[in-house]
Amino acid sequence: MRFGTWNIGSLTGRLVEVVEVMRRRRINILCLQETKWIGNKAREIAPWGYKLWYSGKTRGSNGVGILIDQEYIDDVVDVSRKSDRIMSIKLVIGDEVVTIVSAYAPQAGLDDSTREEFWEDLEEVVQRVPRSEKLIIGGDLNGHVGSSRDGFESIHGGLGYGERNEAGNAILDFALA
């Protein structure tokens, strides 16, 4: 099973492109951010047999989605939409239970309360996943974790680039929790 995440900037008029990228890169499940679509809906993507679940509140901003290829659609047992920035899908694949979360963190220019609310909401979604299940978070978390592992050796692989910023610290703190 192959996963991906993509801040699409806007999904309008781009579904065919997204499916073509998934097929070319053999991605089975793709988390999307900044779809800018309104509603809490599901949509079949014909003729490929893919399915998109999405959540959005305001046209032209935010919005998340999870797009799944035909191989795993029937394995979806639950869809939960927390907000226009966080949603999750639970799959049962054989004897494994996997929860996929698509998340879109607020940009640095937004007020602290908006960013704090996002991290609290994401924490709530993650805490609902039993430790016996697998959890995968795909998202645009709007931060730079940098290349240094200092203080985060247990969770940071050292494969980032540049310097860590404040939002990067929030990402790493979340991963440690």
Automatic annotation (TrEMBL):
Pfam families: Exo_endo_phos. Transmembrane segments: none annotated. Residues 4-155 form the Endonuclease/exonuclease/phosphatase domain. It comes from the Eukaryota. GO terms for molecular function: catalytic activity. PANTHER family: BUCENTAUR RELATED, CRANIOFACIAL DEVELOPMENT PROTEIN 2-LIKE. This is Endonuclease/exonuclease/phosphatase domain-containing protein.
